[in-house]
Write a structure and sequence with these properties.
The chain is an alpha+beta fold and about 475 residues long. The protein has 20 helices and 14 strands.
């Protein structure tokens, strides 16, 4: 964990790197791929070389920043003459969409993998990036996805998630003369029991507070349930793998685990029940709720809290009728009742790794690399990265002053820098498959609607992990 904390400190101090990235095909070095591209293509103003009629195809992972990437592509084409075709997979469908798109005559030239598990699925398409400048700029090269001597995925954004809260509503609660707790600020909340007592008391006073519920809707529509079957499940699995080897990377431990015990299932249930029982929406209706619904409820002041990450600012800020002031948007850790959780921070990590398709032409590889370079190095590109995408990148070429300015990114940086707090790493990169996540999401929906009891959720997590691991080993 000390290594992880050091990484977080370095990532905070050295943000937003520009890179000059050159990808290579399976049988070529990066430099030879670029040379072939230069010989066969026509040079654009950016220095990129592409054959006439060729274009970059970027398959985006995050629907919440689809509009921003479209605008980036338009500006890049205006500046360089090179077209960037941005397509965005629907929420929860990236792996399936990539599988379909990569088999087409014009497949993605830039795509994303979600760590070691993602690489194992797509290693036949990932160019080796070990000789690229982008890789050399990483503040901690152990963050990259590697295989032997090769580097096949480069992270471009550190992210964080927790409980986002509207401090104006929280302060209104703390000022109540008849509140049932003794707390005077959110700083007093540092474990699950305290969070539970505040949330339940706020529910009793929801009319006085002008809210429909303490927590935004627990979105459980299939494809919209990633906050629970991935991000929330990350916390108990982190603790389980940490207990197995305190000194090991929990992702590495999880990748090696063919079976799990779901040791901290009770803690998962603690926080999930708290969400359900103090929500803006009845449990029976949660199967129709989306992430957008949840974020709209928060933006419109209908709830005090919502579980999400710093990327949610792009959603909150564009909700028509948004009433939440930037200065009131804060974040705190997700508490579940584990001993010692008072020392924990928010969940920090990444599932965002750029990969370049080694099966496309060398000129397309080079053009794709140049686009990424422009995004992270040009003035216009950096403006998008900092002010529209809000990335916190783990590179060393941008100055300390070039940090994301939105309120949630600032909160992530603040939590990463807090003394005495340990960030919880994104252990969910080791989850065996999308099928596993979807099965857990379906079980959570059945539980929320009253169709199945909690034992079904526990059994689903344990048995589906084992079966998906077995299926992966057999393939």
């Amino acid at each position: 964990m000390e290594k992880f904390k050091k990484l977080m400190a370095v990532a905070m101090a050295s943000l937003m790197a520009a890179a000059s990235l050159t990808a290579c095909s399976s049988s070529e070095s990066a430099s030879s791929a670029a040379e072939k591209s230069a010989e066969s293509g026509s040079e654009a103003s950016s220095g990129s070389t592409v054959k006439e009629g060729e274009e970059i195809y970027f398959l985006n992972f995050k629907p919440e920043i689809a509009d921003q990437y479209k605008a980036i592509a338009e500006d890049y084409e205006k500046e360089t003459g090179i077209k960037v075709n941005v397509q965005t997979a629907a929420s929860g469908t990236y792996e399936a969409t990539l599988k379909s798109e990569i088999a087409k005559a014009d497949p993605p030239t830039i795509f994303q993998i979600n760590g070691p598990i993602g690489y194992s699925n797509w290693k036949d398409y990932c160019a080796d990036l070990k000789d690229t400048k982008l890789y050399s700029y990483l503040t901690d090269q152990s963050l990259a996805v590697t295989d032997g001597d090769g580097v096949y995925g480069i992270p471009y954004s550190m992210e964080g998630y927790g409980l986002i809260y509207n401090n104006a509503i929280m302060q209104k609660y703390f000022a109540l003369s008849d509140k049932g707790t003794s707390f005077s600020s959110v700083d007093d909340i540092d474990n699950f029991e305290k969070l539970k007592s505040v949330a339940e008391d706020m529910t009793k006073h929801k009319d006085e507070l002008g809210i429909k519920g303490v927590f935004a809707s627990t979105s459980l529509t299939p494809g919209e349930d990633w906050r629970w079957q991935t991000h929330l499940l990350n916390i108990p699995m982190y603790y389980e793998f940490r207990d197995e080897d305190m000194d090991a990377n929990t992702v590495t431990t999880g990748v090696a685990a063919n079976e799990i015990k779901f040791t901290y299932a009770k803690n998962f249930k603690n926080i999930f029940d708290l969400y359900l029982n103090n929500s803006t929406t009845a449990k029976t209706l949660l199967g129709s709720k989306s992430v957008d619904d949840s974020m709209s409820e928060f933006a419109l002041g209908q709830c005090a809290m919502v579980q999400n990450g710093e990327w949610a600012w792009s959603q909150i800020s564009k909700v028509e009728g948004n009433v939440v002031k930037e200065s009131d948007i804060k974040m705190m850790p997700i508490y579940t009742g584990v001993d010692g959780e008072e020392k924990n921070g928010i969940c920090v990590g990444t599932e965002n790794y750029f990969a370049i398709n080694k099966k496309v032409s060398a000129s397309k590889q080079q053009a794709s690399a140049d686009f990424l370079n422009w995004l992270f190095s040009s003035e216009k590109g950096k403006d998008y990265v900092l002010n529209k995408l809000g990335f916190i990148a783990p590179f060393n070429t941008f100055s300390d002053s070039e940090r994301p300015s939105d309120p949630l990114s600032k909160e992530v940086l603040n939590w990463m820098a807090k003394d005495g707090k340990t960030s919880i790493p994104w252990t969910f990169e080791c989850f065996p498959s999308q099928n596993f996540k979807d099965a857990v999401g379906a079980a959570l929906l059945e539980y929320a609607q009253g169709g199945k009891d909690w034992d079904n959720v526990q059994n689903t997590v344990i048995t589906t992990w084992k079966s998906e691991k077995a299926a992966s080993a057999a393939s």
